[in-house]
Input
Amino acid sequence: MQGNTACAEGALAAGCRFFGGYPITPSTEIAETMARRLPKAGGVFISMEDELASIAAVIGAAWTGARAMTATSGPGFSLMMENIGYAAMTETPCVVVNVQRGGPSTGQPTRAAQGDMFQCRFGSHGDYSTIALTPNSVQEMFDLTVKAFDLADRFRVPTFLMADEIVGHMRERVTIPDSVEATSPRPLAEGSLPFEANENGIPGFAPFGSGRAVHVTGLTHDERGYPDTTDPEAHDRLVRRLVTKIESARRAIADYEVMNPDAETVFVTYGAPSRTVEQVIHDRPGDSIGHLRLRVVWPFPEFALKEFPNAKVFLMPELNLGQMVREVQRHVDQPVVAIPKIGGELHTPAELVSALEEHR
Amino acid sequence: MSASEWFREDRLPHIYCTGCGNGTVINCTLAAVEEMGWKRDETVFVSGIGCSSRAPGYILTDSLHTTHGRALAFATGVKMARPEFNVVVFTGDGDLAAIGGNHFIHACRRNVDMTVVCMNNQIYGMTGGQGSPTTPPGAISTTTPYGASEPAFDLAELAVAAGANYVARWTSYHVKELTKAVTTGMQTPGLAFVEVRTQCPTNYGRHNKLRTVPAMIEHIRSHAMLVEKYNRLTAEGKPIPEGTFTVGELVRRSRPAMGVRR
Output
């Protein structure tokens, strides 16, 4: 199965019943699969007029209690930034898939990149935090899509599946379970206000039609959901909570793989470049090479770097000119070496071996 | 039920300026809701950004106050996901015709079953009176200090051309006609678009020699012409006074609609 198809199947298995989208290479197969499958599953597929509208429709559907998703690539992701901020501010659970391609601008529509890793963290204006997952296989296109819906619901936050053209278009064997367990947002308790946080900093959810007359606004609002745009404390309380509810749950959200924790030279990867690192480790059985592979990059699990107590150097192959490497650099004392590659192709094993030999 | 039961009293006082027409439009819309007998927990108000778009925040239902121009796209998601909801969108001329123009024409084309009420005050009121796509040529605003030089959009005609099943235009003076039009729009499957020419004495009238509320309302009323009369005069080749706009029902039809309650 193709990665993009597996993503759509994962969404369906997770109970996604609304997809609003706009065609864009290399993500289009997700929309095509949803267009074919959703109506038969009792869901709604709608092709919107642009990506601004796609994410808007998804947020609207999410407030009716539906699990809702859209899928896009760089240029569409840029357009979505406005309403991603709205979803963060209004604590709307929804999933956005970005099958990354070469940028900036129209760039390389059919080529892979990981150039949007900061955009998914900081792309909309103001302070907020979100969750971003990074699949490296067709199986993970399925599994992490399911997981993205659960995280979105648990934390009431827009959650990103940051794929790339390689995992989106590669074909691999995939195991699809008969059913997957889905969480749902904690309902709004009687007597609680619609934006009053529980002990985890996350409010209960009362989707439209619950009889709770919830007012949802992108303006700074109080616990009732009412605009309160001039009180510094109201803004501080709300925005600090939006960030803290995610950042304080870093360990609960974290998902990573550790290989050879005793190694002195450690690759840190996410997404497709991890496949080349796995090849290099496979090809050099006697060599002690560490590998930290992140399946969740945001919120960044800095404690995962401590899994390598002997590390003398961290090597970071990325399909960009060095993005997540900055995040690693700020958490460790050892040298962190970027191995950037752009243009659309994966690092070859030989390229990583040469970096390994140069820096160890 | 009475319309007053639909207000969030704990949100009062509202932000509207003295003499603003938006309250009249909200009142007429809620009177239409009452006429329809809709239930509060099955009704969702959606809006974008601007003075008009603050309206849902004063209504005691689920409501989605969204981003600038995007209300119709959000409302499309709500209505398509839950067709049993009654969806009403409040918007303004800047929200709908400028930044939201593309969403407007596509919502009309899709003919999603909802009611869109546009408070067209021909100005960006919230930001202090800048020229909008419906500011009439020659009108003074803070960004058209020498008179607006661009032609204005006719929003109702745009909705007709784009495919909405019901299109009407009235003014904040014509409260009975407006209430009836909104009610008819709510009864019509598909997208109902009701444009309301309304007064902004603070940020439009002040710059255009229409300083008092009665002067502004009279200005709007006196430039409104029933569409039937307009069509007759046009057919007879008679002159139409400058600044005239049509009021009445511009279209009522039954093109295929989306998101209709099953």
